[in-house]
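Running low. Got one?
___
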Amino acid sequence: MTRALAFIAVLALALPAAAQDPPAGAGVRIPVDELVLDNGMKVLTVERPGVPRVFCALYWKVGSVNERPGITGLSHFFEHMMFKGTDVIGTSDPKRDRELNAQIEGVMGKIRELKLLGLEALRQGTPTSETARKGGATIPAEDEEKWKALKAEYDALIEDQKKISVGEHLSKLFQANGGTGLNASTYYDWTRYFVDMPTNKVELFFWLESDRFLNPVFREFYPEREVVKEERRMRYDSTPTGLIQQTFMAQFWESHPYGWPVIGWMSDIDQYTYADAQKYFDTHYVPQNCTAIFVGDCKTEEIRKMAARYFGRIPKGKIKPDPIVTLENEQVAEKRVVAEAESQPSLQIWWHGPAEVHADGPVLDILAIVLSGRTGRLYRTLVEDQKLALTASSTFWGLKYGGAFELSANPRPEVPFEKLEAGLVGVVEKLRSEPVSDRELQKAKNQTFSGLVQELDTNSRIAPRLGFAEINDTWRDIFKVVPDTQAVTADDVLRVARKYLTPQGKNVLIIKRRGAAAPKEGGRQP
């Protein structure tokens, strides 16, 4: 996401008594009340009288960046797990449910041992079970019958558990009380859970959310693991460019944890254990790692009281998460991926950039705007003037520990990739050799500010901007957006273009249409 979309400007709201005044020169007024509970959990409230609804969200500072090889994708997996309920939600017989969970874990422990033997068989080149492979498991051929017997035992236990499970129980409770848009999502640096509630039902959100993070039951752990594996197949394996983009990202992030996909590697998903999940939960799903956000027709004092009553009962975590210490290696040479797919031909060029909160972030946002849009340099040069591309755009997306500056274009059918790439590079080199005009600079600043105002039309847009700012550093950074953007100069743009958009820092992705003949130019193959 761009920094222009990572904040909020509230121009017409009156500040309630509990809200904090913005610093002088901030250019925006945001009625945010902050409460920090004794257990470290932060609660933000924005009063917006009007429609009697409140957008409620939890932002957790945990994402794929916090994983390691062997448990990649576990953050996303937890997004699924946290909808499976607690002792009082999701089952009609909690006692029997606990017994079945223990029995299932015992059987899966034995299957896990066979899978580890299967990995050793692969390493040594000895036969593995073809039947198991079709089911997504790697088992030594000699253990196939043992695997089948254990799988039958596992399937029977799962069927017993289904009889006492209450499907979508959490969702139904929210919906029955007027909740809409219940969902969750996971990214590199965060996981979030959110729903839009009637004002008089906000307390239900407090109770349900505090209960599922205070008393979670990792119900249907192994069946849900198969669901996630299928989701991965749909997102990557079965899409025309999914595996290509995965390869490109792994190459782009050479040493950083951002290199693996948020959904995880398939082999890791297949090996998750209950113990892995419990340790990860105890480390990251702790109150001091969470920010609750309420935006809408609510009263700050009421939110504060409910937060203390419900969220305050969650004990503070005892395990300190490991810091992210692995830095991305400095790129010393151009890297390139060339592939074919049954898709529209495309060209992307990426460079490494700084983290979202870095001082160069606003400058790179301005630079991306100078390049983008129908009046931007890329479109005017490559689409209109040189007739090389059908589309062309640019963006800077900053993450918590790094960022990327991207150029992308779709070539015209008759244009070779080499010529389109030269055109893109030519636009970049001009940025690296001379300052942008005052008109371009001011136009980019105006677009940035207008983008802020457009983000204020609904509660469901305000809350994420607060949440993402808090994930990266603090929600108070929103007060820096206007002054930081207005302070950008043409010399700043020239400096960052020279600093980040270097020839040796290029990462090129070319996707050709499978089976298409190479474009001809001047009667010859390029």
